[in-house]
Amino acid sequence: MAISKNNRRITFLDTTLRDGEQAPGNEMGPEEKLKLALLLEAAGVDTIETGFPASSVDDFQATKMISEALTTSSFATFSRALAKDVKIALEAGGVSDKHLVMLVATGSDLHLKYKRHITREDGLREIAEAVAYAKSEGIKNIAVGIEDASRAEQDYMEQIIETALSSGANQIILADTTGYSTPESFYELIRFVREKVGEDIKVSTHCHNDLGLAVTNSLEALKAGADEVHATLGGIGERAGNTSIEQVVAFLKYKGEEYGLETTIKLDKLYEAYLALKETIKLEDSRMQPLFGTYVFSTAAGIHQQGMLNNPDTYEYVKAKDIGRERKFYVARHSGRSILRYLFKELGVVPDDSLLDYFYNKYISNEHNGTCYDTETLKGILVQELNSTESEFGEAI
Q1: What 3-state class would DSSP assign to 55?
Q2: Whose C-alpha in 56, 224, 292, 336 is 20 to 30 A from the C-alpha of 276?
Q3: Is-contact 77 50, C-beta < 8 A?
């Protein structure tokens, strides 16, 4: 996809393999992570987070395998703001321009006091030492991610950012770690940081979905000047999950021109990666999840079916083909005769009213037990009945 000179290109860091994996039931082995990383790369994801190498042998191995296999995407490793974590991350991923070292800084006083049991000064010292160490080892791309940034005091945020940048970091990540932010407050946070760091420092967002606002907050961040969105396939992640990468990408595809924003990610390839993820972690099907839900490109409503048979745009703004999916009609008690006419037409049959009434009463209006047919199944039933000598309409075709 070509990028317009008039639009700003948004990059994505996919954290499915790290933050997405941290939810119960989402564990993945190194080989599984490698497979997904290559699918994400094929989809055009800019940076793929491999994991937290210092946390486990599996994450170390996954990082090593992925860093050696990627050819077009960059990769990121997650570390605490500790030189020993960075050392292990570099042993796993090596030193290269494709390796983004991400260091987590404690942003809020709440986390400093009750989680870390350290002072603000301790936190700043950690950041300075860890960034300086990564820089001294030859890493050019160093990001400081401010955990719980949405609940941090502004004066301490400024100190963190100043310390990170003066020590050699070139990217700031703002995390709404608990899904605390409203769209308005997150916009203001991003705008504040964007103005403070200037245009040469990359600003990224990392939102969680505890109030169902992760996608909205991420979009507000882009409007406020953020350069990058951290997200996961299907929005998987801790608690209520993370920003769904496919939803933000779809927004940019359909609405990006209005906001002067673009991405080069391929939506249909993201769906392919999602299917692999779903199989890997045995993710349950969602009926109505935007873009990836089982029935989001399907309908059983007769009025909708009639409109879509005449012109799909009547009820289909987001196109199934753009996501790598197919439109499907289902037949249930809310369906009408239009879908029957459509199926008969496909069979080369011109039905009269009695034929329509017969099949409508038998398979649609009188089905009160929740039976729902996909059109191929119902078409097979129609053929069987129309060819049956025992049917009232036997041998009609």
Answers
A1: helix
A2: 56
A3: yes
* 3-state helix, strand and coil shares in percent for the chain, rounded to the nearest 5: 50, 15, 35
pLDDT, residue 219, reads 98
Strands (E), 166-295: 171-176, 202-207, 228-231, 261-262
Rounded-to-integer distance, Cα 67 and Cα 62, Å: 8
Residue 43's alpha-carbon distances to 38, 200, 353, 393, in angstroms, are 9, 27, 49, 51
Instruction: Check residue 290 and give its pLDDT.
Output: 97
- How far the first Cα of the chain sits from its last, in Å, is 47
Per-block mean pLDDT, blocks of 10 residues, the chain (397 long): 75 98 97 98 98 98 98 98 98 98 98 98 98 98 98 97 98 98 98 97 98 98 98 98 98 97 97 98 95 94 90 94 94 87 90 88 71 87 79 52
- pLDDT for residue 5: 67
- CATH assignment, 8-281: 3.20.20.70
Query: What predicted TM-score, i.e. pTM, was given to this entire model?
Result: 0.92
Give the single-character DSSP code of 232.
B
Beta strands in the chain (DSSP E): 8-9, 11-14, 47-51, 74-80, 99-106, 141-147, 171-176, 202-207, 228-231, 261-262, 298-299, 328-331, 373-374
Provide the phi-psi class of 166: left if phi over 0, else alpha when psi is between -120 and 50, else beta. Answer: alpha
52 to 57, 76, 248, 382, 391: CA distances (angstroms)? 10, 9, 25, 56, 65
Is residue 97 left, alpha or beta, with left meaning phi > 0 and alpha meaning psi from -120 to 50? alpha
Give dist(CA 355, CA 195) in Å, integer.
69
Q: In angstroms, how far is CA 200 from the centroid of its own chain?
A: 27
Q: Compute the residue count for the chain.
A: 397
Res 1: pLDDT: 46
Quote the tokens at residue 255: 């609405």
User: Hey, what are 44's tokens?
Assistant: 């055009």
- Rounded Cα distance between 74 and 96, Å, is 10
What ranges do the domains of the chain cover?
Answer: 8-281, 298-387
